[in-house]
Amino acid sequence: MSSKSDGPTPTINFDEFLKVDIRIGTILEAAQLEGARKPAFRLRIDFGEQIGIKVSSAQITVHYGAEELVGRQVAAVVNFPPRQIGRFMSQVLTLGFADAEGAIVLVSPERAVPNGARLI
After folding, report:
1. CA distance 43 to 55
2. Which one of 10, 13, 23, 101 is least enclosed by Cβ atoms within 10 Å?
3. Closest C-alpha to 93, from 39, 36, 20, 15
4. For residues 117 and 23, is the Cβ–Cβ distance under 8 A?
5. What are 12-71's pLDDT values in tens digits?
6. What is the DSSP letter of 85?
7. Quick check: 95 and 103 in contact, CB under 8 A?
């Protein structure tokens, strides 16, 4: 995740936006990611029956503790290729915004929605 705020990116059309598959999932487990260069959690996230359970690395340790993440719904991109983070293979990109100090704040729905629901 980048904390760049260089202004808007080039305009894309709606069909290009639809290629990014952003879904809601519920965090089942959260633990420190051993061997990461920057502090991060290893998340196990349930995206419902169609997508299933995926794992993600997330640098969200400033604002969140592992225990408070369990049960929380988060948004993630589920159709990027897996990415190697140290010895860990992250399957989805958990989404967040950088606060004024650069620490990540998670993207979550204001109300519960079904796991696997797609951003529309």
Report:
1. 5
2. 10
3. 20
4. yes
5. 999 999 999 999 999 999 999 988 889 999 999 999 999 999 999 999 999 999 999 999
6. E
7. no
Displacement of CA 79 from its chain's centroid (Å): 12
From CA 87, how far away is CA 33, in angstroms rounded? 9
For residue 97, what are its two tokens? 């915004």
Place of tokens 């990109």: 93
Q: What is the pLDDT of residues 68-99, one digit of tens each?
A: 999 999 999 999 999 998 889 999 999 999 99
Read off the DSSP letter of residue 119. Answer: P
* Annotated domain spans of the chain: 17-106
Any idea which fold 17-106 has? OB fold (Dihydrolipoamide Acetyltransferase, E2P) (2.40.50)
Tokens of 19: 């290629």
Q: What pTM value is reported for the model?
A: 0.91
